[in-house]
Amino acid sequence: MSDNTQQQDENRHIAERREKLNGLREAGNAFPNKFRRDSYAQDLQDQYGDKTKEELAEAGITVSIAGRVMLNRGAFGVVQDMSGRIQFYVNKEARPFAKSLDLGDIIGVTGILHKSGKGDLYVDLGEYELLTKNLRPLPDKHKGLQDTEIRYRQRYVDLITNEHSRKVFETRSKIVSGIRSYLSDRRFMEVETPMLQVIPGGATARPFITHHNALDRDMFLRIAPELYLKRLVVGGFDRVFEINRSFRNEGLSTRHNPEFTMIEFYQAYADYKDLMDLTEDMLRTVAQDVLGTTTIVNTVRNDDGEVLESFEYDLEKPFTRLSVFDSILHYNDDITAEALADEHAARQIAERMDIDVKDGWGLGKVQIEIFEKTVEHRLHQPTFITEYPTEVSPLARRSDANPFVTDRFEFFVAGRELANGFSELNDSEDQAERFQAQVAEKDAGDDEAMHYDADYINALEYGLPPTAGEGIGIDRLVMLFTDSPSIRDVILFPAMRPRV
User: Fold this and answer.
1) pLDDT at 142 over 70
2) Residues 127, 198 within the same domain
3) Average of pLDDT values for 440-468?
4) Number of domains in the chain
5) Which sign, positive or negative, has the C-alpha torsion 161, 163, 165, 169?
6) Has 280 been labeled as part of a binding site?
7) Sheet holding 217-221, edge to edge
8) Nearest to 44 by CA among 121, 109, 159
């Protein structure tokens, strides 16, 4: 069927359904709101699915269900609610009502629960009511909504017709709840910090800028809640977390959305090693509670959906821990430790890799660029990369053993960064110097460099106890747990480029 013919057919169906709606309007209230359900489809399946046909007939259980008509075939139809699906039976009295229904209509049904000869539960149409008339035809029940872009732009249709999408977002909700419960059980307090900030801080990223009319000043959507959360630790809340929305004015890709969700948490009297231990245990616990297993499978597919490669991750096994420096040597046989530790030689290595080395970069920044080019995408198994150079870690505490690096880690799995954590810098004078270095970089044209946050320095001068903090990307974690290839698959309403 051509696109033009398909559009004409859809327009005809819409016109016919509008005529039905007009008839409902003339007859009275076309959008009633007095029906109340008392049962959900899956709850009925769970509670009565193992009963025999005879047992249910004898029990005479009356239920009220409501949902969207997904199938309507003469004697039987199917209603879908948020929990699942259940059949309804069209008796003789209900035939005119059932015949008037279109797929996608939302109905309320009260009747006796039965089981068919095939073992399927169904509700006999005793009382019934059309609650909302569907005007637009649903996608073909076999092909579903196959256009990926339309799935993202019209998520409401995707959720109606795509059980897999519904399961992904149900899993996402359980993951967030699992993380919240895990931290709350360990005396972390959930808090809320400003999303609209005078100074964007807590990460090196380009912010979104807006204007506050009453104050007549520019403000920023937060790029991270970090500096506010650490202010709370200064104030005496030793364990805090926030499941937060953050915003970064950067590109769109399968891994990046300008609006994203993180969990950030901070623990006083702890260091980055404590948080690596906590992260391992938390991810194992959440995976077991949500998925029922600690083994996760991720697949690589082509454009036709065929599996090209499959990876299995066992979160029960200890996660690998490797420094930035050692990981570069591990994955690059042609690089020596001596060369990587020398700024001039490291620059030459980077240039041979076609890395655009900037004049202002120090050895630490060059090493990170080599790491991102040659190592990051190869970190498939759960791995903590540690000892990030101080040059690229403006908020992390310097290592006592080697001040060139910090007590920091990033967590990788499936070739993607999922988390970033470190022992917090609590020396106010050191932090002020690093802020000033960031300002110099911003003045030199780096749009992602940090601002100088004088109030945060003031807070540190009151005293931040030894503290460790971490941020985990919820969207990427859900991608991992649901084997989703794109971040758009796990965000209900992802950012989309304008239609051409």
Assistant:
1) no
2) no
3) 91
4) 2
5) positive
6) no
7) 196-197, 217-221, 209-212
8) 121
Instruction: Tokens 């049962």: give the residue.
Output: 39
State both tokens at 40. Answer: 């959900």
Does 259 show up as a binding residue in the annotation? no
What was the pLDDT predicted at 144? Answer: 56
Burial (Cβ within 10 Å: 0-12, 13-18, ≥19) of residue 156:
exposed
CA distances from 402 to 231, 330, 344, 411 (A): 27, 21, 20, 21
149 falls within a domain: no
424 neighbors 395 (Cβ within 8 angstroms): yes
pLDDT at 306: 79
Tally of CB atoms within 10 A around 497: 7
Phi, psi of 480 (to 5 degrees): -65, -50
Other Cβ atoms closer than 10 A to 210: 10
Alpha carbons 75 and 125: distance in angstroms, whole number: 11
> What is the biggest distance separating any 2 CA atoms in the chain, rounded to whole angstroms?
87
Q: In what order do the strands lie in the sheet with 467-473?
A: 189-190, 239-247, 259-268, 467-473, 416-423, 408-413, 383-386, 320-323
CA atoms within 13 A on the CB side of 482: 26
The last residue of a domain, from among 138, 171, 194: 138
Among the listed residues 272, 246, 249, 270, the one whose alpha carbon sits nearest the alpha carbon of residue 260: 246
Q: What is the Cα–Cα distance from 181 to 243, expressed in whole angstroms?
A: 12
How far is residue 467's CA from residue 465's CA, in Å, rounded to a whole number? Answer: 6
Task: Say whether both 112 and 164 belong to one domain.
Answer: no
**Rounded average pLDDT over 42-46:** 97
Tokens of 296: 């996760």
Q: Tell me if 385 sits within 8 A of 322, measured CB to CB.
A: yes
pLDDT score of 141: 62
